[in-house]
Amino acid sequence: MRERLWAFVHEECIPAEESVEAFLSAAGHPGEATRFAVVPPVIEALKERARDLGLWNVWADEHMCHLAAGRATDDAGPCGVSLRRDIEAQLPAEPLTVSEYALLAEIMGRSELAALACNCSAPDTGNMELLSRFATPGQARRWLLPLLQGRMRSAFLMTEPDVASSDARNIACAIAVSDDGARATVSGRKWWATGACHPQCGLFLVLGVSDAGARPTRRHSIALVPASAPGVRDVTPLLVFGYDDAPAGHASVTLDALSGIKVFVPRVALAVMDRAIQVHGGAGVEGRGLLARAYAGMRCLRIADGPDDVHERTLAGLEARRVLGAAGAREAVTGRRPAKL
Q1: Which residues of the chain have pLDDT under 50?
Q2: What's the number of domains the chain is made of?
Q3: Closest C-alpha among 133, 135, 134 to residue 60
Q4: pLDDT in the model for residue 21
Q5: Does residue 252 sit in helix, strand or coil?
Q6: Among 310, 311, 191, 324, which Cα is nearest to 255's?
Q7: What SUPFAM superfamilies does UniProt report for this protein, alphabetically (predicted)?
Q8: Which of 15, 116, 173, 208 is spaced 20 to 30 A from 155 at the CA atom?
Q9: Which residues in the chain belong to E strands, given as ranges?
Q10: CA 156 to the chain's CA centroid
Q11: Would you say residue 328 lies in a domain?
Q12: Are 160 and 188 in contact (CB under 8 A)?
C-alpha cells in the first residue's frame, strides 16, 4: 500500500496542485465567495482514483471500522442491514493500525491534495470518528454515510471570538435542549471553523454549553446542526496571512439554529519550512509559491489546533499525575499545595 500511495501522491496528486491553483485563481481573489462555490473537478477525479487504488478511508483502524458499522445495529430490519452494508462498503477491508497509518500520513503530507483525495483529511476524519461512536442509526444514515462516501464535508465549531476558547470551560455558545430531548436551540458565534465554507459542507458539529450549572468538565454537548439550517447566518471566509484555503476555508459563523501529538509536530514542521524558505530565498516567500502558503497554514495550526501552551500544560499534568499521583500533579502544574482537610 505504501508503494501505491507513494506513486499516487507523486505522479497524480502533486502534478494536480497546479491545476487546482489555476482553477481557484480564475474563480476570484482570496476571500471572494466565488472561490468557495465549486470544487475543482480534478479533486473529484483524484477521489475516484484513490478508491480504485484501495486508498480510500485508510484512516479508519479496526476499532473505528467496528464502531462505524455498529451504528446500524440498533436499526432493526432491512433498513439496518442495508445501512450496515453501505457503511462497510466504504471502509478498508484490512484496516491499518495507527502506527501503520502514520507512515501513510507522512506520504500524504507531501501533497496538499493527497489526504483529501483519500478521504483522510481534517476535520472530516475526527467528525466521522465522533459519529461512529455516538450517532443514532438515523444520524448515521444522514451524516456518517455521506461523509464516508466523500459526498459531503463537515466542520467542527469550537473556537469563539469573544472568549479564550482554547480552554473549553470558557465556551459561551449555548445549547438549550427541550424537555423531551427531541430539539435543541443553538445560539452563539464561532470562528476559525475549518471547512465551513466548502460548497459540499452539510454538517456543523457545534460545541456548546448545555448545562451551565454542572461542573466545568460536564457542561458541554455537541449539537449536530445542518449547514443549511435557517438559523445558520453570516458564514464568512477568514484569511490566514492573505490566504483563504479555498474551497474549504476557515469561517466565522453566527448560530441561532435548531438541530436535531499536537505540540511537537506543528513546531518541528514550522522549523523545517522556515529552513526551506531560507534556502529558497526570495522564491520561498513569494506569495504564489508552495512554501509561503504552507508556512502560513502551519503557523496557524499552532493556534487553531489549540495553542502549544495549552497542550504543554496538559502534557505536563498527565506526566506529573503518572509520577506523583493526582494531588502531587496539581501542585506541580499549578504551584498550589492541596488544601488540608
Answers
A1: 76, 261-264, 339-341
A2: 2
A3: 133
A4: 94
A5: strand
A6: 191
A7: Acyl-CoA dehydrogenase C-terminal domain-like (SSF47203), Acyl-CoA dehydrogenase NM domain-like (SSF56645)
A8: 15
A9: 153-157, 174-177, 184-194, 201-209, 220-226, 232-238, 250-258
A10: 6
A11: no
A12: yes
